[in-house]
């Protein structure tokens, strides 16, 4: 399963009663009131657990959690950065 699909499934399961209809990787989540600032922190915990990354505090911003695409890009970037640290 792709990073985007995994995030979509999680959002649908937590905030949309499992309904993924109309939810794609470009939907502006906060603008449509799908998630709020508390939801961002829930997503951070999910991403850290599911993708085994650490999301630094400075990366927790509305810009990084605007859409599923931006979240997936953050996950991929943090994975790459984590690999270069090892």
Automatic annotation (TrEMBL):
Residues 1-79 form the Carrier domain. InterPro entries: ACP-like_sf, PP-bd_ACP. It comes from the Bacteria. Gene3D superfamilies: ACP-like (1.10.1200.10). Signal peptide: none annotated. This is Acyl carrier protein. The lineage of its organism: Bacteria, Bacillati, Actinomycetota, Actinomycetes, Kitasatosporales.
């Amino acid at each position: 399963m792709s990073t985007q699909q995994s995030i979509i499934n999680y959002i649908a399961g937590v905030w949309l009663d499992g309904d993924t209809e109309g939810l794609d990787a470009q939907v502006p989540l906060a603008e449509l009131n799908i998630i709020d600032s508390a939801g961002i922190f829930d997503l951070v915990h999910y991403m850290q657990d599911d993708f085994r990354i650490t999301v630094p505090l400075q990366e927790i911003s509305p810009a990084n959690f605007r859409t599923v695409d931006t979240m997936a890009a953050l996950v991929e970037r943090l994975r790459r950065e984590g690999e270069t640290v090892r």
